[in-house]
Fold this protein.
Amino acid sequence: MSSSPKILGGVCPDEGCQAKVMFPSYEASVECNRCGQRFQATSIKNVAEVKDQAVALRTVLRSLISSSNPGLKKGPEMVM
């Protein structure tokens, strides 16, 4: 049985974003896929180990898909 790194989940510290973020325990900094900012892992709010790896994978994939489709974002540049 191999030992894989723990997957941690938390909340983006940006008050306007508050997206769920997932990251490996060994990462020193974390990029939020919603707002695009990079934060120190220690600044992520409500960090907890994700026990269900399938949930972690779905969350990461959902974040990547939504961040790669600019039509889903509703930033100031998209509002007329």
About this structure: The mean pLDDT is 80. The radius of gyration is 14 Å. Residues 70 and 78 are 9 Å apart (CA to CA).
